[in-house]
Amino acid sequence: MWGRGFLQRARFAQLSPSSSSSRSLLSAASAAPPNLLYSHYQRGRWFGCSTANMAPVRDPNTLSNYDAWRTRHTTANLKIDFTAKCLRGSVILELESQTDKASKEIVLDSSYVTVNSIKLNSAPSLWETKARTEPNGSPVHIAVPEGAAKGEVVKVEIELATTDKCTALQWLTPAQTSDKAAPFMFSQCQAIHARSLFPCQDTPDVKSTYDFNITSPYVVVASGVPVPDETKDLGEEKLYKFQQKVPIPSYLFALSSGEIASAPVGKRSCVCTGPNELKASQWELEGDMDKFLEAAEKIVFPYRWGEYNVLVLPPSFPYGGMENPIFTFATPTIISGDKQNIDVIAHELAHSWSGNLVTSCSWEHFWLNEGWTMYLERRILASIHGGDAHFDFSAIRGWKALEEAIKEYGEDHEFTKLCISHKGIDPDDAFSTVPYEKGFHFVWSLDRLVGRENFDKFIPYYFGKWSNKSLDSYEFKDTFLEFFSAPEYSDLKDKIASIDWEGRFHSTGLPPKPEFDTSLADVCYELAEKWKSKDFTPSPSDVASWTGNQVLVFLNAVQDFEEPLTVEQSQALGKAYGLSESKNAELKAAYYHIAMRSKDASAYQGVADLLGEVGRMKFVRPLFRGLNKVDRELALKTFEKNREFYHPICRQMVEKDLGVSEAANSS
Ligand SMILES: [Zn+2]
Fold first, then answer.
1. Is 506 annotated in some ligand binding site?
2. pLDDT at 267 over 60
3. Sorting pLDDT into bands at 50, 70 and 90, what band is 666?
4. Which fold has domain 362-506?
5. Less CB within 10 Å around the terminal CB: N or C of the chain?
6. Residue 323 CA to ligand 1 centre (angstroms)
7. Where are the alpha helices (DSSP H) in 357-451?
8. Is the dihedral of CA 258, 261, 264, 266 positive or negative?
9. Are the beta carbons of 190 and 1 closer than 8 angstroms?
10. Where in the chain is the domain with CATH 1.25.40.320?
11. Is 306 marked within a binding site?
12. Cα of 373 to ligand 1 centre, how many Å?
């Protein structure tokens, strides 16, 4: 995912609008005293095996007994009901017994989902939904009176409907889409929201193949390969079929439906989005998709999923992106008219290997997904844009984000560890940039330790060995040590023995800081220095050869000046570098923050206009806070005007920021 902390805050706000996100983090941390860390995990690893060869439950965020039963195939027969805003239908789980008739019940995760009936091997069965506990929800217990022989597969068919408390689905009104003609829906199951769609073994430690049979009045996209010949007309509705033949964890189950058009953007890729955005989206991605895929394949090995498509969500999508297989779900702010923000796509594509093919077995080892993905993303982009300086430039930006995150948590905080105990913790609450950037730094440190040439041989070995499987940090360590114990690497023996695995996995705070190649960043800071002088005359050529991210680093440096720019300087900045006219929301937003700080009133309407075009919280919340400081009336007017356009989570956050929420009024 590419959410960078926003998901966690948004979710918390939704549940408890009057509390601050930092409080949730503190209370979450205090819920897990240090002596309990990893106890669940260790119990599973050391003592949990009651039957020989049975893999233990090692994910504290599931209540399922997946040590006794494992889902092998899932069939989702679901109807998307836009009027009632729910999914209804049946889901069939095919579970393989891991014991020899020892287990007499199947326990599944569920959360705010209505179960109407459950059949076991086509016969009505005894089942019960047990009381809800946080953060893991309400387990569904299904009796299997005779048990099943080891290796035998039983079929569990569940009739169900989602509820209005479902945490996995977002329903947009026509007003929240760009052509305002039809409603739109999409799912977001990471981390533990799949259980809110249907009862399942909602753990990344279990992988299943999928059949999707989805009925909707609008076009459907799912995390499987479309089976177009089998789309059936059912009067007002259509049945859309998809297949996912690569086993995937539950958090990668994904659906979206609405007025969706598609256009090719590469040999294996199409872009799907609203008809109004199709042309611009196609232009933005065309040409680069094949390059990204080829670069990634060169680093790891050939792409194994068939198609790689991108679904660009409506402007009110509040997040960055989600690596749902076959169809990455992406923020529309990547469509910036300058191809400068599509690094999100390199990130989500990299997940096709790290995360989707090779998966962390629980959210405690999430860095295996995101740290590796940041590493691959930077390798992909460096190979396309030309080398190490680009890699380091991106890593420098990441390091800054990591420093900020660790500063915000406090450097002793549990959530600043690479491996984070999740006992009693909702993974969304522990979500931050830490697993991304601290994970990246660990992977990169191993790369530098053994040398690029050697590390490049390890990469396909690791991803090959763990394809279609899930692993923990210790299995990663074992794999690394095993690979480099080969005789041809004997000269690396001392270096490898020097790796502080325990320190890397369990220390809080920043990891050791590497030497960066700062050449691409230095020019940004040098230009910013020049702007400190009031008589500096800017010229478009100052930034003409720069990437969008370089301009961003420069703008952030200017924003951090002790003294704001004068109104004249700020206007000259916008004009000389084409910032006020830019379609790039990243650059435009950064510029408007400088303009607002300079009290350049001529820019305020531009801020208001931008706030009517983007719904990604990364931009919306800071812009509203900025506008509120300089022109509260315009801020309130802009919010009222766009209220229906924003996603409910975003709307609620902005209400709080502007002090117009009901909670704020009553307190
Ligand atoms: Zn990611």
1. no
2. yes
3. very low
4. Neutral Protease; domain 2 (1.10.390)
5. C
6. 7
7. 367-385, 388-409, 427-430, 434-450
8. negative
9. yes
10. 519-666
11. no
12. 6
Active-site residue flag, 348: yes
Query: Where exactly does CATH 1.10.390.10 map onto the chain?
Result: 362-506
Question: 6-10+64-350 maps to which CATH number?
Answer: 2.60.40.1730
Task: Examine the residue annotation and report whether 146 is marked as an active-site residue of this protein.
Answer: no
Distance 346 CA to ligand 1 centre (A): 10
Distance in Å, CA 435 to ligand 1 centroid: 10
Q: Which of 436, 577, 591, 592 is catalytic?
A: 436
323 labeled binding residue? yes
Residue 182 CA to residue 266 CA, distance in Å, equals: 28
Nearest to 203 by CA among 326, 11, 56, 30: 56
| CA 349 to ligand 1 center in whole angstroms | 9
The answer on whether 370 is annotated among ligand-binding residues is: yes
pLDDT in tens, 12-41: 333 333 333 322 222 333 333 333 333 333
Length of the chain, in residues: 667
Mean pLDDT of the chain: 90
Whole-number pLDDT of residue 1 = 67
CATH 1.25.40.320 is right for the domain spanning 519-666: yes
Asked which of 60-69, 557-566, 629-638 is least confident by mean pLDDT, the reply is: 557-566
β partners of residue 120: 123, 156
The residue to which tokens 């409080």 are assigned: 23
Residue 300 near residue 459, CB atoms below 8 Å: yes
pLDDT tens for 64-123 read 999 999 999 999 999 999 999 999 999 999 999 999 999 999 999 999 999 999 999 999
Between CA 470 and CA 491 the distance in angstroms is: 31
Residues of the chain with CATH 2.60.40.1730: 6-10+64-350
Annotated catalytic residue within 259, 284, 348, 655: 348
Ligand 1 centroid–CA 366 distance in Å is 10
| DSSP secondary structure letters along 70-101 | EEEEEEEEEEEETTTTEEEEEEEEEEEE-SSS
Is 321 assigned a ligand-binding role in the annotation? yes
